[in-house]
Amino acid sequence: QSAVSVPRDFEGCSTLRKYLGQLHFLQSRIPMGSGQDAAVPVTWTEIFSGKAVTHEDIKYEQACVLYNLGALHSMLGAMDKRVSEECAAGAFTYLRDHFPHSYSVDMSHQILSLNINLMLGQAQECLLEKSMLDNRKSFLVARISAQVVDYYKEACRALENSETASLLGKIQKDWKKLVQMKIYYFAAVAHLHMGKQAEEQQKFGERVIYFQSALDKLNEAIKLAKGQPDSVQEALRFTMDVIGGKYNSAKKDNDFIYHEAVPALDTLQSVKGAPLVKALPVNPTDPAVTGPDIFAKLVPMAAHEASSLYSEEKAKLLRDVMAKIEAKNEVLDQFMDSMQLDPETVDNLDMYNHIPPVLMEKCAALSVRPDTVRNLVQSMQVLSGVFTDVEASLKEIRDLLEEDEAQERKLQELLGRVPPAPGSPPGLAEVSKECSKYLELHEKASFTNTELHRAMNLHLGNLRLLGGPLEQVRAALPTPSLSEEDKQVLQNLKRILAKVQEMRDQRLSLEQQLREMIQKDDITTSLVTTDRSEMKKLFEEQLKKYDQLKVYLEQNLAAQENVLKALTDANVKYAAVRKALAEVEHKWNTTVQTLVASYEAYEDLMKKSQEGKDFYTDLEGKAAKLLERARAACQASEAHRQQLLERELKKQPPPRPTAPKPPLQKKALDEAGGPEAAELGSL
């Protein structure tokens, strides 16, 4: 009851510490934790929301008392010359590190971190004030002030957390503004003293830039200080007088006397904070503050204290062992990463004994469609036949036209000209025009047809392979050819990699055994019957049970160097085998992809083949009609030429009888005029 309503003085702090200690003593004897038999409901009110929070857990009672202890110390620090902030920080730190954060929102990690840094920042402020009053060295004062800035920056980060902002509401904005004002203010104080140090070292250019930076930061602090009490405003005005005077004087001296270059601030060494305060540790069972143990007759307190000391010895042993294990594990991990050796795939030879599933799927699909290749070949044969027919028709048309054109030229050579004559046969020009159009279409389609045949020939063999026996498919896939020496190198590497894994597994197993052994190691019963003077000896005897495990671990760690050396040598010999296997694997993957691509190209080939057949069937019909027209037109043209020739011959006088021409003249005439000239000569 006294702890619930404590007076706000150091007597109240004493009461809270005593109650906290007695709760700890009670907890060590009675099962009052969460879910335990003697747990009772504990209710406290959240400080920010005002909501009542209840947990059936004695540790929640301890946490709330500890929070109030920190809060009371912070109030006393604000009221009584600010000497209690480190105690407050200690209470909040112990609460953050030893209790769950889920009890209530005002005990969240962010809120407790905020409280801790606010307390440490104010404690560092006290130390800064004392250092300035004692006229300590400027550089030390600057570092102390920089640490104040660091603490408040951490507090500001906690305030900016969304969870904190929603919890604090309007207070968050006021606190954040005040903390930011303090950050700028103490940064200005730090740079003021850095400028004073530069002055002492006669670095007059640095002095100017530090004083200027201090002035800039102070102006930012003044902007954020609106609404603060008169005492704060007065302090800021006083600081402005000091820094402003220092800056104006330093700038004037440098401009007229020293003429030193003023460096940029970011080129100077940053001021590192000097944390000279720390959270005072909380010991809930310190008899100096807890008073006599109310429950001492239930279980000897000495046994609990000794058990705690023994637990610390066990923890120290575990820390030492884990430090060695982690160091070796880090080296091992880095080494294995650099080697890029995966024990599972280092020799991937097994994959070459089986057809991959994706290929099996395609083979199975073709097995239920046995006519796939025949259909494709027949389709392409039909296409080729139609293509050939079209090409033959167009060639015949072209030959007819060329023959007709040749006859026309011969007639012109014979007669010298072709006299205009009504009734000349029409249609040849249209036939020629259409023939050119069809030839152009045929030429374009011919390229596509050639590409289609090329694609078919490319995929036909693969499709036959996929549709054939699986043994042929497996035989078509590349396989590595390793010599006996290569196989020996590979086996040696696998053996050493297995050793590495065995070493890892053994190390992990030994570590787990050690942890479990430490966790189960409870000597409270022995401590109850042991004299205090014999405790140290008992500890030494009990800790010997871990010696055997430690020896095994030491041997495991020591073996790592030899194993890695052997692995390095084996990897050097494996380089050539690795390259050969990589090449075969690449060929294997390429072959599989090619076969799969051929299967997937089948439907596309059939579709394009059908489109080609449709196109050429249509063109064939048109070409056949055009051929008939061409034949008719050429016959008409030939008849027309015969008529012209007969008319021209009738216009000439009959020739005189002459002696037979010599063979040479007839030969020359034949060569000059061809059949028509020969006929004329005979006439």
UniProtKB/TrEMBL annotation:
Regions of compositional bias (Basic and acidic residues) in chain numbering: 638-651
Q: Mind telling me which Pfam families this protein's record contains? A: ALIX_LYPXL_bnd (PF13949), BRO1 (PF03097)
Q: Which GO terms describe its cellular component?
A: endosome
Q: What keywords does the record list, in alphabetical order? A: Coiled coil, Cytoplasm, Endosome
Q: Which InterPro entries match?
A: ALIX_V_dom (IPR025304), BRO1_dom (IPR004328), BRO1_sf (IPR038499)
Comp. bias regions, Pro residues: 652-663
An annotated GO BP: protein transport to vacuole involved in ubiquitin-dependent protein catabolic process via the multivesicular body sorting pathway
Q: Where is this protein found? A: Cytoplasm; Endosome
Annotated coiled-coil positions are 387-417, 493-520
Name assigned to this protein: PTN23 phosphatase
